[in-house]
Write a structure and sequence with these properties.
Layout: H1 3-24, H2 32-39, H3 43-50, H4 53-67, H5 70-78, H6 82-85, H7 89-98
Length: about 100
């Protein structure tokens, strides 16, 4: 396995773990340490792959939109994240109603 492939897989693993964590709590509550703990890696690798926590959180939202994860989409709508503001009215309603 090449270095690039391993890095891409590690990054995807982190995002998948963080998406699950966001569904249980709130994406804004995810810290570098909690992301590292749930991913089984060091917090330094979180910084390596995502740079900032803001970047990680934005990628969590993008993944949630791609996978139609209503709980995280609703969180980001309430937080007025630009990524979800442009979603269709139907998707917004569905996400918000799913969380009631």
């Amino acid at each position: 396995m090449s270095y690039k492939t391993k890095g891409r897989l590690q990054r995807e693993h982190i995002l998948n773990c963080c998406l699950e964590l966001a569904k249980q709590t709130h994406y804004k509550e995810i810290t570098r340490d909690s992301a590292a703990l749930c991913s089984g890696i060091t917090s330094g690798l979180i910084s390596h792959y995502f740079g900032s926590m803001e970047q990680l959180r934005q990628e969590i939202i993008s993944l949630a939109v791609t996978r139609d994860e209503h709980a995280v989409i609703a969180q980001s709508l309430v937080s007025r994240e630009p990524q979800t503001e442009s979603l269709s009215t139907e998707v917004k309603k569905s996400a918000l109603l799913h969380c009631i």
